[in-house]
Amino acid sequence: MRHPSPSRLLSAGTAALLILPFLTHPAVGQEAKVKNFDLLTGESAMGDWTTDAPGVRRKLTLKDLPPPNEKQSVRNQPKIVKRPEDAWPKVPEGFKVDLHAADLKKPRVLVTAPNGDIFVAESKSDRITVLRDNDGDGKADASEVFSTDLKQPFGIAFYPPGNKPTHVYVANTDSIVRFPYTKDLMKAQSKPEQIASLSGGGQLTGGGHWTRDIVFSKDGSKLYASIGSKSNASDDEVENDRARIFVMKPDGSDMKVFATGIRNPVGLAIHPITGDLWTSVNERDEIGDHLVPDYVTRVKEGGFYGWPWYYMGGRQDPRHPGKHPELKAKVITPDVMLQSHSASLDLAFYNDDQFPAQYRNSAFAAQHGSWNRTRRTGYKVIQIPTNDGAATGEYVDFLTGFVTADGDVWGRPVGVTVAKDGALLVSDDAGDCIWRVSYKGKLLVPAPPKAP
């Protein structure tokens, strides 16, 4: 394998960090011992960060939801602090956490290239960076800025899906662009080619939720793109063509609405077996600590998920009394309801054999953390089990520990991807780093079949 020139090496500060042996926390150790938790339901499932731990299981249902309470709405922004010396992410028994890369610039979405390179969206810097692990030790030791000809890039996808892509697509906040791609390419060789506009015609008039994710269907015939709302819960004309998911051909033509009423579908992913489209969603704020639950769900073509007039099974938003009664019965209840205001961001399905069998074909979703809640929630990565391609309705804390005993926050997960060796990589835009979670325990049960 060729090695990059010195200009492509990481900064001296990053390199100094990465040569330390795995940077595993010396006091806590590499494994967090946790018991097999009972399933939390009802009010117990709503909890806060003090009830988080690897292995904690939660399941929320429609009957658990309280009535709206606008007076309960609070502004409780997290206090971001430097990681304390005695702090390290916590994972289930048999797993360990290492630092894959440091000194990044607010890393967001992560996507693994077929050769194992990690493409990182550094959205605030208007660039995509590529990380490479040359010696296979689990730590990035080479870095290259792929392109800076971008505008708040977020979603990244390779086309066609599989081992021999010809292009890498990037979702800017106002467009979808693509670059020619060949194996081992770390720096774009041309300017981006725009294949779809995400502005004009009432669509994306600016402001509000700026992230745009993209993903190709399993066979590569369709490209999906997500667009969040501008507001919290407004139905003004400015929201036309927002809060929805679009579908188009790979060249950007024949763009159509796929699903609506999804306030902010931050992350998109394709189930590795069924090929179904899934999304991770930030729901609305300001009607109570426990409303409205964020969620992860399969997305039905033509489906309506309620925003802004309804939520969760046709409940009317109190800010829109009596509006659109004809839509109430059409509201789809999402598959997995999460603790409200967790800010569920990126997600990825696990389709490898490094982790134990119970993780195969599960989704992992990053919870960036709350602001509109009296007691903090989020600041973790959760596992969402599936059975024959359908969610069970529960979710499990997987990567936790980003909040101090005083309630300060030192880590905020954003992006999730499965590395070529089967480890799970998680970007942290508070710590400007990427964490690597690997399994070192003994596999006792064969995993389900791996998707082709």
Question: What can you tell me about this protein's structure?
Answer:
With 452 residues, this protein is mainly beta. The chain has one domain: Neuraminidase (6 Propeller). The protein has 2 helices and 30 strands. It has helices at residues 12-18, 42-46; strands spanning 39-41, 57-59, 95-101, 110-112, 118-122, 127-132, 142-147, 156-159, 167-171, 175-180, 193-197, 214-216, 223-227, 244-248, 256-260, 264-270, 277-282, 295-298, 310-311, 315-316, 336-337, 344-349, 363-367, 380-384, 386-387, 390-391, 394-399, 413-418, 424-428, 433-439. A 6-stranded mixed β-sheet has the order 1-2-27-24-23-22. Strands 3-30-29-28 form a 4-stranded antiparallel β-sheet. Strands 4-5-6-7 form a 4-stranded antiparallel β-sheet, with no helix packed on it. A hairpin with a 3-residue loop joins β9 and β10 (175-180). The longest helix is centred in the first third of the chain and has 7 residues, at 12-18. The radius of gyration is 21 Å and the shape is globular. The two termini are 26 Å apart.
